[in-house]
Write a structure and sequence with these properties.
- There is one protein chain.
- Helix 3 (79-90) packs parallel to helix 9 (296-304), helix 4 (108-114) packs parallel to helix 5 and helix 10 packs parallel to helix 12.
- Helix 5 (133-142) links the parallel strand 3 (125-129) and strand 4 (157-161).
- The chain is α/β, with parallel strands linked by helices.
- A seven-stranded mixed β-sheet has the order 2-8-7-6-5-3-4, with helices on both faces. Strands 11-12-15-14 form a four-stranded antiparallel β-sheet.
- The termini are far apart.
- It has helices at residues 16-30, 50-64, 79-90, 108-114, 133-142, 195-208, 248-251, 279-290, 296-304, 308-334, 358-369, 395-408, and strands at residues 37-38, 102-105, 125-129, 157-161, 179-183, 211-215, 241-246, 259-262, 268-270, 276-278, 339-341, 347-351, 371-372, 374-375, 386-390.
- It binds D-malate (MLT).
- D-malate is lined by residues 41-42, 109, 132, 187.
Length: 409
């Protein structure tokens, strides 16, 4: 008999966004003539910028000639991209990160899911609630999460509640977790933490020996100057934090796939025999064994985002989505809804009207407005009573969605 990993049987039957996709397909099959506006999963709609497209064309040409053909690349990424990242995302901002502390990958989802490979299955975990489901589900798969309780929480995970009542600012943990996942600007609430608020977490992690897994996939949307783009802007982070970044929401790479993870050399963990081991060594070993690197073509595309043209084109796309977020936020607030996020983030976190449940409001929006959102309860128990909308549609679709929702209320 084939013995399976029992932990997989402890997961909910399907991944949140797969569930929603199925409900939307059923709806569109039953109502083929409706024009559905998709503001559910955070997928972008603007085309990839010309600088990256040109770079991909050139990279394809390299692959077509024996003199320039690239086979397997370095598992941790090509030097040309790691150096561009170290220079533009870190050194130019006065942040001390070296190119060999940067690991290129196929995106932040994979890396935030895979990082648990190098950590003990006995580690205690804390997550904000609501939370990006990958952090919880991958810990269920690894056997760290414990049993599912009737309130939707897992026995061995500490949930740090983020609701209107605390301004979506999580309290520090009570259980002294070994691993703490923070995603800021936050998915799903769209809220951000300032430099001084994040410094509190660095102090906590350093004094409790915790590891911060900092998902910074939405940093390109930051507009407030007191919100840091990188956790390493805060002193002490090199000793307690791993940072994950992605080109998906920044440059439309949701399909192309490219992101990176920063593991500082000064960050260590402890083995069961009490020896201090650099996490960098373990992650390099893990990646070189289980991963063959992001494709040469996507890495050349990512490199082009750091050229002057690439940077300008990316900024224009981010501004486009930011205009959508501002329009949605304004129109829904004017119509009487409580709306959070959408300022340093492409996500808006909307309180459901009339105390409707998240799924009821999801169904109302789908059936009456033909708009797809993401029910807040899908992100955790404290998401109940909220719904997430994305600003990733076109201007026209965003304006139309705002019109449909406000005229329904
Ligand atoms: C989301 O909608 O939360 C994200 O698009 C999911 C992801 O990046 O994997």
């Amino acid at each position: 008999m084939i013995k399976i990993n029992d932990n997989f049987t402890r997961l909910s039957a399907s991944y949140l966004f797969s569930d929603i996709a199925r409900k939307v397909s059923e709806f569109t099959a039953a109502h083929p003539d409706t024009s559905v506006i998709r503001m559910g999963i955070g997928d972008v709609t603007r085309p990839i910028c010309p600088a990256a497209i040109d770079a991909m064309h050139q990279a394809v040409e390299h692959e077509a000639r024996s003199e320039t053909f690239c086979g397997y690349g370095p598992e941790q990424g090509y030097g040309f991209l790691r150096q561009a990242i170290a220079e533009h995302d870190y050194r130019q901002h006065g942040i001390d990160i070296d190119s060999d502390e940067i690991f290129i990958s196929d995106g932040a989802k994979s890396d935030t899911g895979n990082i648990g490979d190098i950590l003990s299955t006995g580690c205690k975990v804390a997550v904000t609630d609501p939370v990006y489901p990958v952090y919880v589900d991958t810990n269920v798969m690894a056997g760290r999460a414990g049993a599912l309780r009737p309130d939707g929480r897992r026995d061995n995970i500490e949930y740090l509640t983020c609701t209107e009542d605390n301004g979506f600012i999580p309290d520090l943990p009570r259980t002294s977790p070994d691993i703490i996942y923070l995603c800021y600007p936050n998915n799903p609430t769209g809220t951000a933490l300032t430099r001084s608020q994040l410094a509190v977490w660095i102090d906590y992690a350093l004094s409790h020996g915790s590891l911060l897994l900092f998902d910074s996939a939405y940093e390109a949307y930051i507009t407030d100057s007191d919100v840091p783009h990188s956790i390493y802007e805060i002193s002490g982070a090199r000793e307690c934090a791993i940072e994950f970044r992605s080109f998906s929401k920044t440059a439309g790479f949701t399909g192309v796939r490219c992101g990176y993870t920063v593991v500082p050399r000064s960050l260590t963990g402890i083995s069961s025999s009490g020896e201090r081991i650099p996490l960098h060594t373990l992650w390099l070993r893990r990646q070189s064994t289980k991963f063959n690197g992001a494709s040469y073509i996507s890495q050349r595309a990512a490199e082009a985002l750091y050229t002057p043209q690439g940077r300008k084109q990316v900024t224009d796309t981010i501004s486009y989505y930011a205009e959508n977020a501002a329009l949605l936020r304004q129109s829904l607030s004017n119509a009487g809804l409580s709306v959070y996020g959408g300022i340093n983030s492409p996500y808006l976190w909307v309180k459901t009207p009339g105390a409707a449940s998240s799924w009821d409001f999801f169904n109302t929006l789908l059936h009456r407005c033909h708009i797809v959102g993401t029910p807040g309860s899908g992100f955790g128990p404290s998401g109940e009573g909220y719904l997430r909308l994305t600003a990733f549609s076109s201007h026209e679709a965003t304006a139309e969605a705002a019109r449909r929702i406000t005229s329904m209320l």
